[in-house]
Amino acid sequence: MRRFGDEFRGIRRRSLLGLAAGGLLLPAFPLAAAVPAFRITMVLGRGESDNEYGFKDYLDRHGLKVDYTIRDTGGDPARLPAIVEEIKDTRPDLVYSFGTPQTRGIVGPFDDADPRRHVTDIPVVFTFVAAPVDAKIVPDLGRPGRNVTGTIHIAPIAVQLSTILAYRPIRRLGIVYNPQERNSVLTIEGLRAEMAVRGLDLVEEPVPLNDRGEPVAAAVPDALARVAARGAEVLYIGPDTFIAFHNRSVVAAEALRLRLPTFSATELIVRTDKAMLALASSAYGIGHFTAFKAAQILIDRTDPADIPVETLKRFSVIINMATARALDCYPPIGLLNFAEIIES
């Protein structure tokens, strides 16, 4: 357990968050009493959430006056071209982008961005992008080198797997995923590599697609049943909008019915839908951290090309004890010493 403790030195309870995003003490900006209102266009994919509330709260608490324009794709990438055109016409001071599909659609790949179709000359700050380099949003985390910077919301896959194995030893990890989501494909690749290093098996079930190339929500329960039948001992729920957000209640309930313990790389499905375990950053804290980067651009006039893309330094282990009891799958005492326990 010494190695486990070393790997998790950065984990702390979410309750210790406060105004410091995820325990990361952010520099205070001078109150912006003399600063005119900034215009920020927020491009979302699933409505406003704790991320956006945290973002707005940080800027408000630091005295920035902001006029927000909210645009939501509802998960439909076909809506992005019109949003990009609006941004290019209205020229806000900054664009806030949630998620990989929205961000890629707005800024384009770093090696093939087209000024006619993408936003290339207005600062863009993204959040909830799991793998910005692999997704070709930025070429380098330390120095993005373009009009884009942002925050990463998930812990490294190696640390996620260590969390699962600290909870219970397993040989087979299952995953049901949307093969049309870039985040999900990259997560699968990362899991395969890390599982191979540890001598573990990954049980994969992509969600079937319809004739329009869209994942079929009605097929999710059957995919979960196949994962369970193939011997998965824990279901991994990655940063997959289709699985972990749009279908989270079905995924959590069906996994519980199948008596399949669940681990999530994000917090929402554990807090609201009774998945069992998560290693996650606070969405509200991520919003604060993203706003800190926005303030560097708006107040300090720092070029986003020079602002590193970062993740929070601390993560929370979150355990839904009601689900653990229902599955008769209790956490070890060592994990309870620093986990956040949910009783619902």
Task: Write a brief structural summary.
With 344 residues, this protein is of the alpha/beta class.
Largest sheet: 7 strands, mixed
Oligomer: single chain
Rg value: 20 Å
The run of helices and strands is: HEHEHEHEEHEHEHEHHEHEHEEHHE
Low-confidence regions: 1-24
Shape: globular
Percent range of helical residues: 25-40%
Category by helix and strand content: alpha/beta
Strand order across the largest sheet? 7-6-8-9-10-12-13
The total of beta strands comes to 13
State the helix count. 13
User: What fraction of the residues are assigned to beta strands by DSSP?
Assistant: 15-25%
Mean pLDDT across the residues is 90
Question: What gap, in angstroms, lies between the N and C termini?
Answer: 29 Å
3D structure, described in words:
This protein has 344 residues and is an alpha/beta fold. 36% of the residues lie in helices and 18% in strands. It contains 13 helices and 13 strands. It has helices at residues 2-7, 50-61, 80-90, 100-107, 157-167, 182-198, 220-229, 241-246, 248-257, 268-273, 283-298, 321-327, 333-336, and strands at residues 38-44, 66-72, 94-98, 124-127, 148-152, 172-177, 201-206, 234-237, 262-264, 277-280, 310-311, 316-320, 340-342. The strands form two sheets. A seven-stranded mixed sheet has the order 7-6-8-9-10-12-13, with helices on both faces. A six-stranded parallel sheet has the order 2-1-3-4-5-11, with helices on both faces. Strand 6, helix 6 (182-198) and strand 7 (201-206) form a beta-alpha-beta unit. Helix 2 crosses helix 11 and helix 7 (220-229) packs parallel to helix 9 (248-257). The radius of gyration is 20 Å and the shape is globular. The two termini are 29 Å apart. Residues 1-24 have low confidence and may be disordered.
